[in-house]
């Protein structure tokens, strides 16, 4: 009788095409800074995998499924790379379409005025391992106007898979480096 559930699981998993994606090459500075941010254990559901594309969008498009806490980078041939993310807290969530306006390595953080008003303890800081933007940031614009939202790394990797940000899309630092290396300025980003 135990064999029937095993066969059922095997049949269900046969339709899944998860393939691990190797870590990107990183610089000595990246390795040094990333070592200073404790890498938390996380649900393997939020690991970086190549999957069958569930979005139907053109290759090069980034699609963030906020309810799933997943970001998809659409690849050719019906594939996508899936990354686990943290998304905006319900009160601060953002959805829409934007483009990657610019990219930065270990970016400085300049919290917007409304964030400082909510949390007076936050302040601008230079890039580095304790910076909330983490290893990389992709700055999102709507028709050339900065949305103030970013796809970026984090100094809180234990929160991947949660709705905790002020609207930005947070990724593990190694994942945002991988995405940063694959995505050009001008790429379309859909957050839904």
Could you characterize what this model shows?
Belongs to the YkuD family. It is built from four helices and twelve strands, in the order αβαββββββαββββαβ. It has a single domain, classed as L,D-transpeptidase catalytic domain-like, CATH 2.40.440.10. A hairpin with a 2-residue loop joins strand 8 (136-142) and strand 9 (145-152). The termini are far apart. The protein is globular and about 45 Å long. The protein has 192 residues and is α+β, with helices and mostly antiparallel strands. Residues 5-15 have low confidence and may be disordered.
CATH topology: L,D-transpeptidase catalytic domain-like
* Apparent shape: globular
| SSE series | HEHEEEEEEHEEEEHE
Q: Radius of gyration, rounded?
A: 17 Å
The biggest beta sheet is recorded as:
10 strands, mixed
Mean pLDDT: 88
Based on the coordinates given, report the CATH architecture. Answer: Beta Barrel
InterPro entries: LD-transpeptidase, LD_TPept_cat_dom, Transpep_catalytic_dom
Protein name: L,D-transpeptidase catalytic domain
Family: Belongs to the YkuD family.
GO molecular function, one term: glycosyltransferase activity
Characteristic terms for this protein:
single chain; 192 residues; alpha+beta; L,D-transpeptidase catalytic domain-like; 10-stranded mixed beta sheet; two-stranded parallel sheet; 4 helices; 12 strands; 19% helix; globular
